[in-house]
Amino acid sequence: MTEALTLAVFGATGATGAEVVRQAAARGHRVRAIEPGWPDDPGLPEGVETRVADVLTDDLSDVIAGCDVVISAIGLGLSPRTVLSPPPLYTEGALHMIDAMRAQGLSRLIVVSASFVETLDRGPHWFRATTGLALERVFTQMGEMERILRAAGDIDWTAVRPGWLMQGDLTADYTVTPDVIPQDLIRTRHADLAHFILHCAETGDWSRATPAIARAEPASATRPDTVLKELLPDKLRN
């Protein structure tokens, strides 16, 4: 039985964050879910604590006090605005989390980055070209976040680098490699990513490293029409 941890989860209502919260609660961990705002009934697992904080504007010290691990699953939804000028969630958010962790004497931080920070040379040519065009600024910001982490010598960080994220049930049969996903893989399930994040939280594995995670998925999940529909929603294609 894994020792129960107290986990602070930023981005707790996003696709990956919600999986982290659900799986962590099921594993018996104490979970503190953090978002800028919450509805009256957030629909979280029993026992999950909610806190309100904005990673760009708030002092985060109080919301992470007493936690063992800070997990950042914050992300940017695709829209014309975020594609052209993404807000500094990854960079400023990381700086604010690190400041708060130092104030509270905490050291373990796990964040979600992307394999494409390392290289866009993964998947078929059409995928590389479209991904690079749509998300260049986001990947650049993620790379800057990783540089911030490397410069923080007192922080025991892990920047997990998934491939192109997708929905799907937890499989736990994903592949983990240093820095970049294998050449023939481009997809990662949110549920599998959450599973690996919790593994890193529980074991301390991949300290000050950038593990890349992906899985061989059915052809239907990797064909052009499927990926392009996710990558370029109607409001970006029109």
Automatic annotation (TrEMBL):
Top-rank lineage group of the source organism: Bacteria
Gene3D superfamilies: NAD(P)-binding Rossmann-like Domain
InterPro entries: NAD(P)-bd_dom, NAD(P)-bd_dom_sf, Polyketide_Oxido-like
Gene Ontology molecular function, alphabetical: biliverdin reductase [NAD(P)H] activity; riboflavin reductase (NADPH) activity
Transmembrane segments: none
Domain NAD(P)-binding: 11-202
Protein name per Swiss-Prot or TrEMBL: NAD(P)H-binding protein
